[in-house]
């Protein structure tokens, strides 16, 4: 009887390991550039109204991105940009269904019932998927800025 119970528990444990997401199916984890975030900015903040780049860090007040800008002759200029949540209209993170903003225009207002999504939980999920989920220490940030030829992080649309 003990042998049968042990076999049953072992088979349940083995089948339990077969469910859930797998790294082979998560494209963002299998490439060197990491997660790409596309941010639509509030009206009037920049000319083109959007910023796109690799998500480096999720902070309490915004997102740090490494953006790419095409230049003449196929040269790509990269630079570090910080976008505060207050400057964002919407945030798209590839094919992940995460909402990191407290309000989404047309979806929820203060007078309505509380939304069914939790932006803080989604920010935490996004933080874990970012290039530096543990946070970007000052010496490393300075090294990244030096590598990109910047003196400081560009802040877009801060209030």
Describe the model.
With 159 residues, the protein is an alpha+beta fold. It has one domain (26-104, 115-155). The chain is 23% helix and 26% strand. Strands 5-1-2-3-4-6 form a six-stranded mixed sheet. Strand 3 and strand 4 form a beta hairpin. The longest helix is centred in the first third of the chain and has 15 residues, at 2-16. The protein starts with a helix and ends with a strand.
Short description:
This protein has three helices and six strands; from the N terminus they run H-E-E-E-E-E-H-H-E. The chain has 159 residues and is α+β, with helices and mostly antiparallel strands.
Keywords:
six-stranded mixed β-sheet, 3 helices, single chain
SSE string: HEEEEEHHE
Question: How many domains would you count in the coordinates?
Answer: 1
- What is the tally of helical segments? 3
Span between termini: 70 Å
| Percent strand | 25-35%
Low-confidence stretches: 104-108
Layout: helices, strands, pairs:
Layout: H1 2-16, E1 36-41, E2 50-58, E3 62-70, E4 76-84, E5 88-93, H2 119-129, H3 138-148, E6 154-155
Parallel strand pairs: 4-6
Antiparallel strand pairs: 1-2, 1-5, 2-3, 3-4
């Amino acid at each position: 009887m003990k042998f049968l119970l042990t076999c049953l528990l072992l088979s349940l444990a083995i089948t339990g390991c077969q469910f859930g997401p797998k790294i082979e199916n998560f494209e963002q984890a299998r490439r060197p550039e990491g997660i790409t975030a596309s941010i639509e900015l509030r009206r009037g903040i920049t000319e083109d109204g959007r910023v796109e780049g690799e998500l480096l860090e999720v902070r309490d007040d915004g997102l740090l991105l490494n953006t790419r800008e095409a230049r003449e002759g196929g040269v790509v200029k990269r630079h570090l940009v910080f976008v505060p949540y207050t400057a964002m209209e919407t945030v798209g993170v590839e094919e992940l269904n995460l909402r990191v903003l407290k309000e989404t225009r047309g979806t929820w207002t203060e007078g309505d019932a509380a939304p069914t999504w939790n932006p803080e939980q989604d920010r935490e999920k996004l933080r874990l998927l970012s290039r530096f989920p543990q946070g970007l220490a000052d010496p490393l940030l300075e090294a990244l800025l030096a590598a990109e030829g910047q003196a400081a992080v560009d802040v877009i649309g801060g209030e």
